[in-house]
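Example record used in the benchmark description.
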Amino acid sequence: MNSILNVAKKLNLSEKQVADTLALLQEGATIPFIARYRKAATGGLDEDQIAKINEFYVYDVELNKRKEYVSEILKEKGLLTEELSKKLFLAETKQAVENIYEPFKIGKKTKATEAIALGLSKLAEDIMASSSESFNMFSEAKKYLNDKVQTVEFALEQTKFIIAQIVSQDIKVREYIKHQIYNYGVIETKYKKGAEDTNGVFEQYYDFNEKVSKIPNHRVLAITRGEEKKILSYTIVDFNLKKITYDLNEMFFKNKRTAKYINECIQDALDRLLIPSIIREIKTDLFERAEKEAITVFAENLEQMLLGPAIKNKRILAIDPAYVNGCKMAALAEDGKFLEKGIIFPHNHDEKQFIEAVKLVNIFIDKYAINLIVIGNGTASRETERFISKLLEARKKKIPNDNVKFGVVSEVGASVYSASKIAIEEFPDLAVEYRSAINIGRRFQDPLNELIKIDPKSIGVGQYQHDVNQKELSEQLKLKVNKAVNMVGVDL
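Model output (structure tokens):
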């Protein structure tokens, strides 16, 4: 299995581009270095393309190792048919390999292995294979009676478990059922009685139904989170089990005398082995699809934040809004230099405090020739916006040429920065709230320069970012940070 060729096909690149890029990466060259200084070798690939080559190659190598492992295990057990081997070869994802392997992951003790240990495998094979109407399974079962198998009824009951396992391991059967459930099934979620759902976060999913084939990725992430928190039950229903049962009976029908018995085996296989397993497979597939898209979106969101326009040559009054504890203010020079701090209480329904707040904001504006007031978008943000808006309207009436503006900026991650080592080193004498206000103001002046001080995962790039693979998310976010820094540069 040629991983370089596979990657080239998936990314629509030449094998040479992929091979040369991988060679540079294996020599220790960084992605930004390759993108900037080795364009001739890569054919002009950018950072995103180089990162994809590396990501896809590592995945493909791991995928091939898993395929080889599963093939060897199945071969050792005498289960590796030509059809299974072909399915493994064509599997494009790790989950697809696991789905193929799943029905063969037999534990130390199952109903089928117990029946096999009783020596009933051949009876199961004969019952499934015989197309003769003269075949009598009761007579055949008598041949297997011994100290451990003392009655025909017991022999046939145990043999059912072997046949159920054979049915459940049939690749065509599993593919057919998965197709039916995915295309016709309905996701059903219910509220778990007694579960605690603070603020009704999952209320819309308390009694929810949607076609499996139509459900968007963000709902899959929300439902999965609700299930993990034991607030929601989550399954798939309405996939026409009667049709599936009928079709499987047609598939395994050999003669009328064994038809009822085979139907019972198929019913057991469906209820106990196939339906639960394939529903789990589909739920896993849905989550992996949603997770992959979410990580891509989170990384793109971060890139947009990092590459947001810098507001140059503006003196800023940054406000970290709050209610009872007061709004923390920080005046900043054009280059982000901290000038002075202050605190106001405009939201406590205290007229004296309100008047003092108006007075102090005006003092800061006049003292430092403030051009722009920047408000964090957290708690009390709306109220602070209204307060500042009215204050600036009043100033405009008194000073017609006054041109102070205000804006709102995301404060996600500001609290993380304020307690970080780098913030303490920058402002050892300031409380965390004032460091947070400074960060809010500076990220308006120069988003990239300020945001790189914060762990990318703490910037809050998506609603479900804590539900996805954290290692993969970190890698993708780190790539975006490196890309932005190499595009724009930062002040160290």
